[in-house]
Design goal:
With 193 residues, the chain is an alpha/beta fold. The protein has 9 helices and 7 strands; from the N terminus they run ααβαβαβααββαβααβ. The longest helix has 15 residues. It starts with a helix and ends with a strand.
Length: 193
C-alpha cells in the first residue's frame, strides 16, 4: 500500500506531465507503437518536475525523450525501428529508445562488463544512475497516466540527487552530476556526493 506522501507525489507528477503539451504528445506517440510494457522516463520526467518545482516560466526541459520498454522476444534492431517510427511521428524530438531486456548486451559489448539480464521494465528503471531519475510515466489505452517509480518519488520531489549504485559506478554518477550541470540548472537541488 502506498503511503499518503507517495500518493500525493504521484498525483502531482501526473498533474505536471498532463500540463506539458510536449510530454503528452510524446506519450500519445509512444502509446501508438503498441508496446506492451513501456514508459517515458529519466531526464524528460526529471526535468519537467524540477523545472516546475523551481517555478521556471521558461522550463529548461530535457533535450531528448527517453523511451524505455521491455520485450525479451524483440530482436536487437527493434529499438532502432521504434526510434525511427517515433521520429516520423514527431521529428522535432530527439528520441532515445531502449529495450531494457537487452541492456545487459550493451554492458558486455560497450563496457566489457557482465551484468545479469533485467527481468522487467521496473527492474530496468531501478538501475538508472540517480534515484530521482528512476521514474517513468506511461499512458494507458484509455488515456490515463500511470507512474513507475521503483524507489518512490521522494528524491525527485524533494529535489535530492543521490547515487543509485545498482549499476552505475560512483565515477559515472559524479560525471553525470557535472556533465548534466544539475546544480547550475536547478540551484535548489541537494546533491549528495
Amino acid at each position: 500500500m502506498k503511503s499518503t506522501v507517495d500518493a500525493d507525489y504521484e498525483q502531482q507528477l501526473i498533474s505536471i506531465v498532463t500540463s506539458s503539451e510536449r510530454l503528452m504528445e510524446a506519450l500519445r506517440a509512444v502509446r501508438s507503437l503498441g508496446l506492451s510494457s513501456w514508459c517515458i522516463g529519466a531526464g524528460a520526467i526529471r526535468c519537467a518536475v524540477w523545472d516546475f518545482l523551481h517555478g521556471f516560466v521558461r522550463p529548461v526541459t530535457s533535450e531528448d525523450i527517453d523511451v524505455a520498454y521491455f520485450d525479451a522476444a524483440a530482436p536487437p534492431e527493434h529499438e532502432s525501428d521504434m526510434q525511427e517510427r517515433l521520429h516520423v511521428l514527431i521529428p522535432t524530438v530527439s528520441w532515445e529508445v531502449t529495450n531494457q531486456a537487452h541492456v545487459h548486451h550493451w554492458f558486455a559489448n560497450t563496457l566489457g562488463l557482465e551484468v545479469p539480464p533485467l527481468v522487467c521494465l521496473e527492474d530496468g528503471l531501478a538501475t538508472w544512475p540517480e534515484f530521482a531519475t528512476c521514474v517513468g510515466v506511461y499512458m494507458t489505452y484509455d488515456g490515463s497516466l500511470k507512474v513507475i517509480a521503483p524507489y518512490g518519488l521522494a528524491d525527485l520531489f524533494e529535489m535530492r540527487v543521490r547515487h543509485n549504485p545498482r549499476r552505475a559506478s560512483a565515477s559515472i554518477y559524479l560525471h553525470r552530476v557535472q556533465s548534466k550541470r544539475f546544480s547550475q540548472r536547478w540551484p535548489r537541488l541537494s546533491i549528495i556526493i
